[in-house]
């Protein structure tokens, strides 16, 4: 219930309770000293409750009535009735004795200055700078003299703010127009100003356009979240209705309104920029997604964008923030498939041209590894077959009879990632406070294993495999810096602007300490006694690094502490791990070298690589298919009772047992195509999974207890394919 809807307290007039809730909170002692209100207040409230909607008197009329009765009371000693104007069905109040009324009368004068309702000043509206006649005269003078200063100043003033814009073009700047018939805009003046702008020198045009954009961004950044979201939703709806109109006959032909969608997209681009400039953003970036675009020919849009770029040929790929992550995944998958087919076709042509017999294995990236030498074998295979990285991946574990239909590939990824990221391996440091891994800054002679991790991530995206990797968002921002590998190998890669927010995602305690340094009110130089030098331990040896030339002799002061913090963060997240991350970057892009990466935000890359850790087993239950079972069968009902009651770790083990990964793909649980098949074997057997097909083979257990016991044993001992 809002403040206005609540029944006012008997200790204050109803109007004050409704209009000044904030003043009341800090003034409780003063309110208690006010004269108590007699039954007139209660009667007034009752009268308000019985009055019809729209007939309640305003606060000013209430005070006016009270003051009128106060003046009348000074001239007569007869009992007085309070009268409420404009309120229907209000019962007459009982008479109040004169002496009681004079002691307990209601008056605005008895309220303290803090409790009086503040009177908001009338906004000062700008005066119309020029009439259309004046403006056209200035334009003609500028053309003849070559001095455009007057016209330039007019444009800058006009687009400085919305009130200035209203003053220039609205017929009445203070009036509101809500009808289709009359927009209230002087359209002739608007057209004249636009036509004149087209004929001004280019430097003026650029300045004016920059001013327009900055004015829009400034106004939109100041909107409320609700209002901002409404603007975005209406523009997205406008695009959807133009693409798929419910009644096409009500719209003009597409040739007549081809500018509608591009114009709406450009406005959305400005809104997206305004949203990104606010910290935190007004709305999540996902609110800009237009799910209608999932139903258009995305590859045609992508090819148009690749062919024409950001030229006059429109493509939604020019505005990737409106394309959902699911649609972007489709674009990346199809682009990857086309690259795979192209590489495989080229291999086939090369074989035939050399008069060699074609072999099906030449169409795949075949990995043959030993479980006992997983990392070294994988590194050797990927190094030898670097030219085949964009072929379809197939994995074989030496000594195991497993045909890779997808399940062996999933397990290879999982085991390799688990081993590489183990703390004993020394490549990555696990930060317990942030639950993520970060690159070790230890220097080494060979960074090929970091390149291997990059290749693994690239292969995962390329082959639509989700990985259980815990990198901070900053990693994916660096991975897209730049999104396309530069031709000049001397150009730095993986370097991006970083802030305390990025550091907080990895080392929250250190980020907090640096923030405290920035806000410290004492003497930084005398109290902290720090210099532009940092220290790191490497294999038991403390090493020092200067953040800038001569940093060990430059003290950190109140004046230069911002520079110190920025250099320190840049050292930790960019410079100290540059060689490690550069190898990782080149490994990833050696597989995923595609313009499609330019469509992605860092957060979206993370989702494509890792999937989502959030499990919704109810959604999995709704989308599960059955073979040999019906969803009403007793065994299936036992199964879901057990699974829905599992703790999160067992639910993840079940997902890993049946799919090869404990993460949820981009499309959610429905994209798993999870199937439960009836296994016509003894109920003494454990469940069996075909991870290639996301299939669980379940014997018809007779009791829930037996099913739970067998299921837990099966999902807790699921590594390897030898038994199957």
Automatic annotation (TrEMBL):
Residues 1-51 are annotated as: Disordered. GO terms for biological process: protein polyubiquitination. SUPFAM superfamilies: Hect, E3 ligase catalytic domain. Pfam families: HECT. Residues 21-34 have a biased composition (Basic and acidic residues). It catalyses: S-ubiquitinyl-[E2 ubiquitin-conjugating enzyme]-L-cysteine + [acceptor protein]-L-lysine = [E2 ubiquitin-conjugating enzyme]-L-cysteine + N(6)-ubiquitinyl-[acceptor protein]-L-lysine. CDD domains: HECTc. InterPro entries: E3A/B/C-like, HECT_dom, Hect_E3_ubiquitin_ligase. Residues 385-724 form the HECT domain. The active site is at 692 (glycyl thioester intermediate). Pathway: Protein modification; protein ubiquitination. Its EC number is 2.3.2.26. E3 ubiquitin-protein ligase which accepts ubiquitin from an E2 ubiquitin-conjugating enzyme in the form of a thioester and then directly transfers the ubiquitin to targeted substrates. This is Probable E3 ubiquitin-protein ligase HECTD2. It comes from Physeter macrocephalus (Sperm whale). The lineage of its organism: Eukaryota, Metazoa, Chordata, Craniata, Vertebrata.
